[in-house]
Amino acid sequence: MARGVLATTIVGSGMAMLDGTIINVALPRIGEELEASVAGLQWILDGYLLALAALILVAGSLGDRYGRRRMFIVGVVWFGVASGLCAAATTTEMLVATRILQGIGGALLTPGSLAILQASFAHDDRARAIGAWSGLGGIAAAIGPLLGGVLVQVWSWRLAFLINLPLAAVCVLLARRYVPESRDEEATGHPDFLAAAVGAIGLAGLTGALVEAPGRGIGDAVVLVAIVLGVAGLAAFLVIQHRSADPLVPPKLFRDRTFSLANALTFVVYAALGGVMMLMVMQLQVSLDYSPTAAGLAGLPITVIMLLFSGRSGALAQKIGPRTQLVVGPILVGVGMLLLMRVGPGSSYLGSVLPAVVVFGAGLATVVAPVTATVLAAAPDRYAGVASGVNNAIARSGGLLAIAVLPAVAGLSGAAYTDPVALTAGWRTALLVCAALAIGGGLIALGIHNGVLDTPSAEDTDESPHPGECLHCGVDSPPTHVRPGHHA
């Protein structure tokens, strides 16, 4: 049972992570075939991230109320159908619209993965389970550029979306067979769809202003309207959350310093990652004349390092506390980004690319599992879906805003990404910004409580196990005992 639950969550979240990176290597071909500008490419990436970030909070709440397995399966099916529509797109606008639909599916399935793990594994085993989930799911994200390169070179960028269809089918079969249903039995009322809509409008307005301002100008009517909608929407969202009796984001979660700092770390690190991953495969293909497959292969060391060390990093955090890894990991990521500044026209793989991606991968493997485990451990069990939703929304928002801002900061607009000289100059500017963000994340982690992953005593918690929770489920073996579900 434990292995089946873990496999299901890995396939589901891995599919979403894979899609989030597989498209990066396809961007030059998409831009060429659909005649997309830099802003068009930004929207293709940000359309997905926008829907994901805006809706993931209400999706986590839906899972807590109506069943985490149920919403997970709905999300997987939705994601698969939307992927098929993406593959059929014939214009930039059509692809952006279908990517938004795909993001809705991702919002439904992503928080469900973590919440299912939180509900199915006992406290002592969660860090190991999350480590395995983070590592293997992270491999899907890391292998995305390689797989995308092969698919683009073999036939078309459309295969990068069609590959999700068989994965979705397998995931649904696994979920129906292995995953027990779980929900928050204390949840009352209905999810706050108004707050979700207002937050989505605010995030969309802010993103639109950041993407369109470089091309249209800050005084353009469209940009000004987007700014007003963004500021007003986000402000209204905060007011609604503070006044609501049943908010999407309970303010008391952020009263915990560790929860707040771990999410701040998540934001800056994922912002740095979003900017670098968008530009790296373009730099390799445009400035170094790599084929799509070669550009994907360039990141293979990241995949290997994640496979070997992410799970162990989660287990180590359980033993010694997460703070050391949360400080060291982002700093290593930042150092790797600084090393990537050496990658330009004429650079060799062994001399420039490989050392950078090795350090970069080591940093990711160090930080990913511990930060996820820290966020969940800092929140009460009954808020599992909400906590994972908040963390995912913050991660996606970081990437969303980085993709919206960095091309302008780097001086890239229109078709500038097709010019090796302009792209290399912009690439190096973006790397400086992203490295500063990542290293800043490591400094933020200094304030995190190192004992957050310690097993709580009976006196310290009034949380009761979820129905169907494994009292001693190891990742490497089936459960030895399962508390039966409580039925009325």
UniProtKB/TrEMBL annotation:
Pfam families: MFS_1. One of its GO terms (molecular function) is transmembrane transporter activity. SUPFAM superfamilies: MFS general substrate transporter. InterPro entries: EmrB-like (IPR004638), MFS (IPR011701), MFS_dom (IPR020846), MFS_trans_sf (IPR036259). The chain crosses the membrane at residues 40-59, 71-90, 96-117, 129-151, 157-179, 191-211, 217-240, 261-282, 294-314, 326-344, 356-379, 400-418, 430-448. The keyword Cell membrane applies. Residues 5-453 form the Major facilitator superfamily (MFS) profile domain. It is found in: Cell membrane. It is a multi-pass membrane protein. This is MFS transporter multidrug efflux transporter. It comes from Amycolatopsis keratiniphila.
